[in-house]
Specification:
FAD-binding_MO, flavin adenine dinucleotide binding, flavoprotein, 498 residues, 5-stranded parallel β-sheet, 11-stranded mixed β-sheet, transmembrane helix, FAD/NAD(P)-binding domain, 29% helix, NADP binding, alpha/beta
Length: 498
């Protein structure tokens, strides 16, 4: 008996990734282009992306959910800074409400894709991560919504002598469900968003939690509950109140970022003063919470209701700024000669970036080298037709950018339909245009792979913008057509109607 694969072998748009970006892309696509067929491929066995993967204690957003949530489905589930379980529930409820969950194909990892200009089609090689079986899906467009880090492994630097450690060594990206840390000494290595989230979450049950950092990060206490947003909703009703709360928080995010970049010394002083008020009297603020770089050279860490500072005040957590010389059987030896004993060591040392989900691309038989490509409007690549991707903001809520990119993608499809075109590919007017790194961000996880990422130009539309206001103008209001975006009709489609 022949078993027929029920999954479609050909669709108009193939969305890669069933996380917050992929679910958003599917919503906008089916709303604006209901006649187009699409499928969502997800390499893992569940939807939710980051919010299904990360299971470490205290995992939460570091942006408010009024802006991190979708504009088309306002966040109404409790605090504005929410835990990962609430966010995951929100994403899955969204997918179910709009029927997107029925379009998701799980355990479907994209290995590579080959473009044919004559056919205006991608042939996408997909592997079943459970059985290893492979199949090919044909599509006119690929929309890559898998973010920019690897889901199968986090970044763990090699520490001298770590094999001598007799305790448990854990990376947050692969947190064991049965990890027991009650009454134990826990050492968290790192100072980023994951570390400052883990420390107060573990401090409630552990004997003591120490955050060991090489370099301090900017840490800012924010209210977990948005009382003004609640007031706006109560006064103006849910629909209008939600819109006002979202606008308020967008303005606040943008104002803080711009102020930080324009007056970094003043913002540094303000953050230091606020931190000092929340820490014990006489605490060495400059040693542990005064980074050597300016605010937003790397992402500023938000701690809801100052929970990290509260744990330090209570004495259940502490911060040490030093370097690891080597691991010992019972902990670590620091460069200063000090030792830190631990039963559990958590390496909150960051992520591994992976451009475009790690898929290999070819265009008319020629391999695509991502490092040679230039980003167009932060959503397409030079030399790669009918390929869009979604990468959100690093200085504000990720989803603000995703929504604008999805809107613009749908506008582009509508314009192509009106012209009778089926191919879109950006081409720089000046092949010698100066370029710079794709992400102007000083984080270590970016610097480690910057030479393997696409680049951006020195002018619009070849900039990867971090300016929401400017992106609203470019992506939502300005015309889709651009001299450097070539729209064509394939030979398969024939001549344009006269």
């Amino acid at each position: 008996m022949t078993v027929t694969d029920p999954r479609p072998a050909s669709v108009d748009v193939l969305i890669v990734g069933a996380g917050i970006s992929g679910i958003g892309a599917a919503y906008y696509l089916q709303r604006e282009h209901p006649q187009r067929s699409y499928a969502v491929l997800e390499a893992r066995e569940a939807s939710g992306g980051t919010w299904d993967l990360f299971r470490y204690p205290g995992v939460r957003s570091d942006s408010d959910l009024h802006t991190f949530g979708y504009a088309f489905r306002p966040w109404r589930d409790g605090p504005a800074i929410a835990g990962g379980d609430r966010i995951l529930r929100y994403l899955r409820e969204t997918a179910a409400e709009y029927g997107i969950d029925r379009r998701i194909q799980f355990r479907s990892k994209v290995l590579g894709a080959s473009w044919s200009s004559a056919d205006a089609r991608w042939s996408v090689e997909v592997e079943d991560t459970g059985t290893g079986a492979r199949r090919v899906v044909s599509c006119n467009w690929i929309f890559c919504a898998g973010g920019y880090f690897r889901y199968d492994e986090g970044f763990i630097p090699r520490f001298e002598g770590q094999e001598r450690f007799r305790g448990q060594l854990v990376h947050p990206q692969h947190w064991p469900r049965d990890l027991a840390y009650d009454g134990k000494r826990v050492l968290v290595i790192g100072s980023g968003a994951t570390a400052v989230t883990l420390v107060p979450a573990l401090a409630g049950a552990a004997a003591h939690v120490t955050m060991l950092q090489r370099t301090p990060s900017y840490v800012v206490a924010v209210p977990a509950a948005d009382r003004l947003a609640r007031l706006l909703i109560r006064v103006f009703g849910e629909q209008r109140g939600d819109r006002l709360a979202r606008r308020k928080n967008i303005v606040r995010q943008q104002a803080f970022y711009r102020l930080s970049r324009r007056y970094p010394k003043a913002v540094r002083r303000i953050i230091r003063r606020l931190n000092a008020r929340l820490l014990p009297s006489g605490y060495p603020v400059d040693e542990h919470f005064n980074p050597p770089y300016d605010p937003w050279d790397q992402r500023v860490c938000a701690v809801p209701d100052g929970d990290l500072f509260r744990a330090i005040r209570r004495g259940t957590a502490s911060v040490v700024t030093d370097r690891i010389a080597s691991f010992t059987a019972t902990g670590v030896l620091l460069a200063s000669g000090r030792t830190l004993d631990a039963d559990v060591v958590v390496t909150a040392t960051g992520l591994n970036l992976q451009a475009m989900g790690g898929m290999a691309l070819t265009v008319d038989g020629r391999p695509v080298h991502l490092a040679d490509a230039i980003a167009y409007k932060g959503m397409m690549l030079s030399g790669v037709p009918n390929f869009a991707y979604a990468i959100g903001y690093t200085n504000a809520s990720w989803t603000l950018k995703i929504g604008l990119l999805c809107e613009h993608f749908c506008r582009l499809l509508a314009r192509m339909d009106a012209r009778g075109d089926d191919i879109a590919h950006p081409v720089p007017a000046d092949p010698a245009m100066p370029t710079r790194p794709f992400l102007d961000f000083g984080a270590g996880y970016v610097r480690r792979v910057i030479d393997r990422l696409p680049r951006q130009g020195d002018r619009a539309p070849w900039l990867t913008s971090l300016n929401y206001t400017g992106d609203v103008k470019l992506l939502r209001h300005l015309p889709v057509e651009d001299p450097e975006l070539h729209l064509d009709r394939s030979t398969r489609a024939g001549p344009r109607p006269s």
